[in-house]
Amino acid sequence: MQQVNQAFYALLFLIMVLVSFFHMQAPVLGLALLIILPPVKHQFAVFKMAGIFTLLFVPAVLGLIAGYQNSTYLIVKDFYYFSIPVLFMLSGIVLARRIEVELFLKTIVIAGVLVSFVVTGISISYMGLGALTDPYSAHYAIGIVGTPAPPLAFACLLFTRKFNITLFRRSLFNIFLGVNAFGIYMFASRTYLIITLCFIMLLVIDKIKKVWIFPVIFALGLLVIVLPFITFSVDSDSTFINKIMGSFNEVSIGNYNTEQDINLRYRGYESFMALRGYLEGGMRDWIFGGLGKLIDLKTFVRLGEDADFQYIPVLHNGWLYILVKTGAVGVITYITIFFGLIITKWRLYANKAGKPVIRMFSAFIIGCVFSLLLTNYIVTAFFNMEMSILMVALGYSYINVHVLVHQLKARQETVKIKLAGLAAH
Questions:
Q1: What does pTM read for this prediction?
Q2: Using alpha carbons only, what angle is made at residue 375 by residues 247 and 240, rounded to the nearest 5 degrees?
Q3: Cβ(404)–Cβ(345) below 8 Å
């Protein structure tokens, strides 16, 4: 019976990942609630462990109070977005009580394989076999669909190999690794490339001398802060490499004046207008923001097939979205919680004498957090159905590390007590 229940919830998780590929919000949220709501053993303790993530609601509540005069519909919409990371991380935490580690990891790998086949099939259906040699054009033709299941599955396979944890026999391991790598290639997504690089960096960073670790992290953090304000000169052709370099132009924050510049660098323009609107506010806006606020673009911009907008409720830059809606309190809360996770779990990951499964899940936590922090600049990662698999994996890994460390400490205390008893005799 227990195996049937595990298989059922693993299937729910797999379907949730596949549905998130098409960014279908209602079904993804419905599946997440199906995972959370049914009773689970030690349910109160499980929800208590989610306390660190429920703190993300605090700035949203303060922003709601500060923005009470705004449109009720827009306030509810913003509160819904701020509930998304809590919901998915809680899904991962509850899922850890429903699915054993091996089955969860295998489900992630299978999800990556299936998504790789789906994106390849859809790309070929749009562009024929030419999609195999020009995946970026196929990606552009398909439109806004995707989920980072292949990058996460690819990382999962590499980390299980690193820590000598066997999920599949060697031939299947190699096939699944190749399929997920091909899936990453077929997505031709700059966002998924960032996620892949975050995990690959983690594979080797624990071998770097300790004295270099924090300077490297500081340099990367500084790069992340500075890049949005830098403009690069690139050619106009549509190769993927040029699109990667062009990404810096797209998100480069600036007050662009011509219609062409605004369209080419829209993400940078909307970020500039959001930042300007925030700075023009009063002290209450700076500290608490205000749910339901609209960003004034000062001009009409074509954002849909037949729609021009001057006021927008949501931004591509998730950090500025947090700043505008929840003020400095929101940004500080997110940075404190997630950088706190990186710092505390880094010690466990870098501990070469630690249990492999604890080190592996610590790596997953760091990788998922880094991926979310970086891609939040581009696709509001914390509030995006597309990134649900990362948030679920983060929640699942978090509770497993917590439980495993607690069990290890309990065993060590038991051994100490027994040794003390023997010494007394």
A1: 0.88
A2: 35
A3: no
